[in-house]
Amino acid sequence: MSTRPARADDPTAGGYRAPIWLPGGQLQTIWPALCARPAPPRWQRRRWDTPDGDFVDVDHIAGRSGAPLLVLFHGLEGSSRSHYARAVAHACAVAGWSLALPHFRGCSGEINHAPRAYHSGDWVEIDWMLRRLRRAHAGMMYAAGVSLGGNALLRWAQESGDAAGAVVAAVAAVSAPLDLAAGAAAIGRGFNRMVYTRMFLRTLKPKAIALARRHPGLADVGAIAAARDLHAFDDAFTAPVHGFADARDYWQRASAGPRLRDIRVPALVLNARNDPFLPQRALPSAGDAGPLVQLEQPRHGGHVGFARGLPPGSIDWMPRRLLAFFDRGS
User: In which element (H, E) is residue 46 found?
Assistant: First the structure.
């Protein structure tokens, strides 16, 4: 875990300090998402056919010839339109790097065909995506995941073991829900339940119901419609659709935190200690991680926030931190 003092605008040092006008994890989460959104980049979209007869949409930005490729996996109900995706795209454009953002199924604006969606431990899907990009890119390749995408990417690294290094040179996870049960409990209470749970279910439930109706017997439409929190939704849809016994079985098997020692490729795991989505007590300590895993847990930052500067603020610190980690290998 990084303990070195650093300037708030110095991403190479691994330090982050929130601006004084933006106190607390809630504001540090909500303000960047709503008020510090960079201009949308000019994505080029490609549609891939999947081995199971479905499709995924991948948005690309081309860098200079021979530059590294960064693969970015979005969070729950995220996409290339998310504020953090725009910020990473801008950082890659400045650095001349190429960027690819594969959309998890159902997140690119169109309901998918196959009887599956996506989840926090979807490492098999990530493996297929990364290997396809690896075959197409001759230079250095890195992978980063945000929130759900970060947890799923770490699970891929854990399951891949030594083979991960043949696909990517390093990985990074930002605000990953490393303990899904603790995260679900946190997001299911008080302000979090009123704001974040409602926000996620507003889009998750209609897509799940549409998929269940397209594939009769896949899941209980009534139970999905009745879900009022993520536990109920995961019980009704995520778990049965993806081969888990129930929500708690899914959370236990999909959480990346307990297996950080299994990662065999350089990895940055960045979590703010005031993230409303994951309590500080659920964060791993240095003893929980393998020798190639670098834990960074600044006091502030919220959930995928890390804003800096004067109002309305910039959210370029996190993308610059990612590129600095990949570029320097630390």
Answer: strand 44-49
Cα three-residue angle 25-143-324, rounded to 5 degrees:
70
Residue 75 contacts residue 113 (beta carbons within 8 Å): no
Q: What is the pLDDT of residues 66-82, one digit of tens each?
A: 999 999 999 999 999 99
Last residue of a domain, one of 200, 222, 254: 254
Residues 27 and 165 in one domain: yes
- pLDDT at position 311 over 70: yes
Asked whether the beta carbons of 264 and 157 are under 8 A apart, the reply is: yes
List the catalytic residues.
147, 275, 303
Residue with tokens 């982050």: 16
Nearest to 197, CA basis, from 76, 31, 115, 47: 76
* Residue 28 near residue 19 (C-beta atoms within 8 A): no
pTM of the model: 0.95
Structure tokens at 314: 């910039």
State how far the alpha carbon of 94 is from the alpha carbons of 10, 41, 67, 91, 130, in Å: 16, 12, 12, 5, 24
Instruction: Give the total number of structural domains in the chain.
Output: 2
3-state secondary structure of 301: coil
